Amino acid sequence: MASNKDYYQSLGVKRDASTDEIRKAYRRLARKYHPDLNPGDKASEEKFKQVQEAYDVLSDAKKRKMFDQFGFYSESGFPAGGEQHPGNAGFGFGGFDFSESFGGAGAQGGFGDLFSQFFGQRRGGHQPAPEKGADLEYALQIDFWQAIRGTQVRLSVQRLESCGACHGSGHAGGASSTCPHCRGTGQVTQMAGAMKFSLACQRCGGSGKTRSACGACNGEGHRLAGEVVEVRIPPGAATGSRLRVAGKGNAGTMGAPPGDLYITVKVEPHALFAREGEDVMITVPVSVAEAGLGAKIEVPTVDGRALLKIPQGTQTGQKFRLREKGIFNARKNTRGDQIVEIVITAPDVRDERMRELLKQLAQIDPRDPRAELWGKV
């Protein structure tokens, strides 16, 4: 992308507009000129492209900085139409070489270095710097019991490993030869109209020398390989928990360390227990007699059975807490509780005797359980 258009004008914002103001302007104009909302309207389609291009540059801090300083943005660092030429380490304007004006090709700083801040090009024939390997992300699904008790899993991972044949260099053994692209200078010249800029040669990385690519990895310096990684899931893991396994990401370049492996946990739901943080939730049915008279009932917990005393007159929806019967938090060395919610089940009326008992109960306790509803209507 290269243009001398005014991207601020395209979005209708000031040059000192904030990121949020630029985003709002883009969304408003994108909705206005979107091709789906203006079918067959070539003018709107072109305007939409201009808005999209402007937002692509101004929403990126690096691209915006370059546009603000030089009045254009290009992925290669120069306006479209430029050409590359090997050799010349300086840069000129209309045939005049400005290199000496800034201390020559070997000097630090200067106009060329200013451009390198934006274009990522290396000067002076430096080799590419070692880079740490990329991190890997994997999702792991475990069941409820594995999550609360902790577990050990074997995870099959596909990762880039350093090539053993070339030790990650990407080069085959043997002597190096002069780079044919830059003719051994380590630099090429990029033309942008009348301007001429010196850039590091991409083929040799600015060294001026090339060597045959490693046949085992095709010059990549790494190969895709499978590995089984042992992962320990600590007790109390929850959906969204993120675990890090150091050094099990992709291999780095030129001897740099590998990245890390990050595992995001997803816990399968349980048929009986639910979880809220470190507390375990469960719904337990009780009979009318147990709720009315009070009782001691057994309820399931993550540790087995536990005794719960419910008082006389317990109502549906009433909750009771079993202390330290929830999830263990290894970091805090604390444990949550279990919350028991009561649901009263209606009796199974199978004979006339049961029916008669319920009628007697209704006569003894004639209260209307819905009486409070009418006062709230």
Q: Which helices and strands occur, and which strands form pairs?
A:
Layout: H1 7-11, H2 19-33, H3 42-58, H4 61-70, E1 84-86, E2 92-93, E3 96-97, H5 111-119, E4 136-142, H6 144-149, E5 151-162, E6 177-178, E7 187-192, E8 195-200, E9 209-210, E10 222-233, E11 242-245, E12 261-267, E13 274-276, E14 279-287, H7 288-293, E15 295-301, E16 304-310, E17 319-322, E18 328-329, E19 334-335, E20 338-345, H8 352-364, H9 371-374
Parallel strand pairs: 4-12, 14-20
Antiparallel strand pairs: 1-7, 2-3, 5-10, 6-9, 7-8, 11-12, 13-14, 15-16, 17-20, 18-19
Helix pairs in contact: 2-3
Key terms:
four-stranded mixed sheet; 28% strand; 9 helices; alpha+beta
Q: Would you mind describing this structure in some detail?
A:
- The protein is α+β, with helices and mostly antiparallel strands.
- Helix content is 23%, strand content 28%.
- It has helices at 7-11, 19-33, 42-58, 61-70, 111-119, 144-149, 288-293, 352-364, 371-374, and strands spanning 84-86, 92-93, 96-97, 136-142, 151-162, 177-178, 187-192, 195-200, 209-210, 222-233, 242-245, 261-267, 274-276, 279-287, 295-301, 304-310, 319-322, 328-329, 334-335, 338-345.
- The strands form 8 sheets. It has a 4-stranded mixed sheet. A 3-stranded antiparallel sheet has the order 1-7-8, with no helix packed on it. The chain has a 3-stranded mixed sheet with strand order 4-12-11.
- A hairpin with a 2-residue loop joins strand 15 (295-301) and strand 16 (304-310).
- Helix 2 packs antiparallel against helix 3 (42-58).
- The longest helix has 17 residues, at 42-58.
- Mean pLDDT is 80; it is low at 78-115 and 117-126.
